[in-house]
Amino acid sequence: MEYKKGGRLIVKKNRLLVLVIIAMLSLTACGNESKSDTSETKTTKANQHYPLTIENYTIAEGGGTAEKKEQVFAKAPERIVANTRPAAELLLHLGLGDRIVGVGGNFGAPDKSVEKEYSKLHILSDDYIGKEVALGENPDLVYGRGGLFDNADWGVGTVDTLNDMGINTYVLESSVTGATYDSIYKDIENLGEIFQVQDKAKSFIKELKDKEEAIRSNLDSIKEEKTFAYLHMSDPNEVGAWAANGENFFNDAMNMVKLDNAFKNEKGDGQISIERLVDTDPDVLIIPDWSTTGGVDAKTLKEALYKNPKLSSMKAIKNKQIYAVDYNYMFGYGYNTIDGMEKLAKEMYPDLFK
Fold it and tell me: Half-sphere exposure of residue 204, counting CA atoms within 13 Å on the CB side?
């Protein structure tokens, strides 16, 4: 009897084992089917998404006004050359670091949130790069600041030249004439479409808009804008004022912190004499911070301006209203301009950001 009972037990155990194996095989099959479905779904979505046409820009050799030009993408680019640091950092926020094969213009305040990822990128030069350097990386997309799309030594090649070679281009909308900070959001949206990372693009846009709203909210009690002038200088002994009259992106960013360019409607090349500067007498003076490029530090420039007898009658001098802003925050035409504006707002109105 014991043997029979034992036999029955053995049979039951064997049956149980068979059922377990069948269940495991079923799960494995489902898993493989799921993976297969996911892969097929991605392929199907890609086939439906591309070819993708994005309305972008071309700029004539030697500069000039950007003209609209479509870019057709047969697939998501895999080898990107970014012509400035901020342009590369934007791609990192979209999870595209593994597609960046080269970066030019490696200067300016770093974005701490992607600094680790940025340190792994292939830096082509600390300065702006030429076309041959860019082409040496065999890119399928050359991307970034519009003014650097030129065949000059400092340019990555014109849009038309690169397109004729079968290379896609993307000129940041934030860097063309008439751009505002809102142009950044359009750029991120476009990049999300080009690389099919729409969710990451939406998330990053929200992050930036939240920052912008926080700045505006904190400054809500400031009802009148202050006037400012931009002093483009790197030598403490040479005061150089520039109207920045064609720099709409720069002027719009400054409006975010309740600053209005006193010379925004200036005609001509925008060079402002010291006499005009003193006579106009803006409330605030903005100077570039060159510390991230190894240039003269802001403290030295400020001290020289405060001591300059030609400027002594200005209210910005009397009221100690000189502020330094990293060059990339002003003229990098990047998303991180918002970081520069936040820093400037806190420096100008510390009590409103406690």
Answer: 26
pLDDT tens per residue, range 200-248: 999 999 999 999 999 999 999 999 999 999 999 999 989 989 999 989 9
Bridge partners (DSSP) of residue 155 are none
Torsion angle of alpha carbons 183, 187, 192, 195, nearest 10°?
Answer: 170
Tokens of 243: 């109207």
Tell me the one-letter amino acid at 173: E
Picking from 49, 102, 101, the residue whose alpha carbon sits closest to that of residue 72 is 49
**Alpha-carbon torsion (325, 327, 330, 335), positive or negative:** negative
Contacts of 244 (CB under 8 A, 6+ apart): 230, 250, 251, 261, 263, 264, 270
Asked if residues 218 and 353 have their Cβ atoms less than 8 Å apart, the reply is yes
Give the pLDDT confidence of 57-88 residue by residue, as tens digits: 999 999 888 999 999 999 999 999 999 999 99
